[in-house]
Amino acid sequence: MLKPGGYLQWDEADLGGLHRRTPNPSASKRSLDALYELVDERFNPAGFSWSWVRSLDDLLRQEGLTVIENKYFQIPDEIAHPWTHMLLLSLGELVQNVKDSGDDAQKWWDLYVEAIEEARHGASVRMGMVVAVGRKPISQALLIPASTREWVFQTSAASPVQPIANLGHGMM
Asked: Exposure of 111 by Cβ count < 10 A (0-12 exposed, 13-18 middle, 19+ buried)?
């Protein structure tokens, strides 16, 4: 639970904006495209929409947070290839599970190996990212008047501040 005044940072990949690119028209991305199409067919048969990702700021507001920051950015060209290799490594786990199940195993594995080769020749997977930062407001309802505070303090000569009562909350 986020405490009043606390911050929440939500980073999310915009998989709805996922696309593949090559450095030049003669380079292939056929297997990379086919592999991602297979993933989408297999694991998103209902056509789940990723449009909510671009509305993270609205989701934070709906939950009562104040939006401090909401940025959308594309993966920069400088990290496109490491990003692609990271995504392919993640897909490798998925492909291995499909391969182990025997269900279209060879097709998945062949596309995966070919996609890695295409990435070695410059093909890349691109997507956007959203970073939203929200803060839970400090509610006026949480400001408790001094007369009903949990701790009552008294100043004495021996100790500048001493708790003298706990108004029945069982805490000391």
From this structure: buried
The pLDDT of residue 53? 92
pTM more than 0.85: no
DSSP string, the chain: -PPTT-EEEEEEEEEEEEEEE-SSTTS--HHHHHHHHHHHHHH-TT----GGGGGHHHHHHHTTPEEEEEEEEEPPGGGHHHHHHHHHHHHHHHHHHHHHHTSSHHHHHHHHHHHHHHHHTT-EEEEEEEEEEEE----GGG---GGG-S-EEE--SS-S-EEEE-TTSS--
pLDDT tens readout for residues 50-73: 889 999 999 999 999 999 999 999
- Residues 6 or more apart whose CB falls under 8 angstroms from that of 23 comprise 122, 123
What is the percentage of the chain residues whose pLDDT exceeds 90? 48
